[in-house]
Amino acid sequence: MPTWFVERPVGEMRPGDHAWLPFSTGEEQEHVIGAFVWDGLTTSSKVIYVGDARPDTVPGLRYRRRIDPVRYVEIGQLRVISCEQARLNRDHFDPDRMLTVLEQEIAVSLDQGYRTVRIVADMNCALRSRGGSELMRLYEDRLEVVVARSTSAMAICQIDRADCGPAELITLEDTHEVLAAANPEFDDGVLRITKTFAPAGLRLEGELDGARHAVFAEVLATATSMQETVHLDFARVRFIDLGALNLLATQAMRMPSGRSVVLDDLPPEVVGVIEMVGWHRLPGVSLGRRKQP
């Protein structure tokens, strides 16, 4: 099946999107799935979560103090369906059964008056069943048709990378048109800053100039207060000024002992400036992965 593939923040997902989230850490799962579910519940969408979780342990909800998952279950806006109920038939993954369950849930949601339906499916137990990988591909191909033709449904299929081999990841990725990504910490159309999880840190995209020094300093200070080592990914940065580099040096000197910032994929000319002034020798700053010419 020919597909196109795009990375899309969960906050920008729309009906017809069939997305894929191979998460590397529990924090990434909480961050991305939590935002998707939270947006649904706070915008009066129906949320269907398929997985072995209780309403209060659905990823991302347990840390949101302003939300009571049980209340949303009681009013019918949040539907949590166990793996066994949704897709297992005598301990085997049954694609037909899962699709039937989801199609019925979508129909019921629309009858209840919800304009959009958000589906999250935990695919780990399906993968672990006999013939799971091949059956999952069959299921994903069919779900793509169901969701893509819908004007109300959007779905994220999530899986733990640790449970999936490289070949399986590529195969399953090819059955989705969208890669679900974390919402940016900041985005003004010129600079985008997004949290990363493997490695932990921040990805910067666009232009980091004087007008954005303050927000960069704020996001960086928050990140370094929460992680011992913060990787900054500059691979998609088109421009960075000396003031921003000075901010990095200042923040590094303020960090407690044992914490550090690793600068990945800096343009060669920027690396040259850092090495010329000696900033790479400051405690807490190191040059990481080099950007390929």
Sheet with most strands: strand arrangement: 1-9-2-8-7-3-4
What's the number of extended β-strand segments? 15
Our Rg estimate from Cα atoms comes to 21 Å
Task: Give the helix tally.
Answer: 10
- Residue runs with pLDDT of under 50 for 5 or more positions: none
**Helices and strands, in N-to-C order?**
EEHEHEHEEHEHHEHEEEEHEHEHE
Structure characterization notes:
There is one protein chain. This protein has 293 residues and is an alpha/beta fold. The protein contains ten helices and 15 strands. The protein has helices at 26-42, 69-74, 83-87, 95-111, 124-128, 132-148, 166-173, 213-226, 242-254, 268-277; strands at residues 6-9, 18-23, 46-50, 78-81, 88-89, 92-93, 117-122, 153-160, 178-181, 186-187, 191-197, 200-208, 229-240, 260-264, 285-287. The strands form three sheets. It has a seven-stranded parallel beta sheet, sandwiched between helices. The chain has a six-stranded mixed beta sheet with strand order 10-11-12-13-14-15, with helices on one face. A two-stranded antiparallel sheet has the order 5-6. Strand 10 and strand 11 (191-197) form a beta hairpin. The longest helix is centred in the first third of the chain and has 17 residues, at 26-42. The chain is elongated and about 65 Å long. The two termini are 34 Å apart. The relative contact order is 0.13.
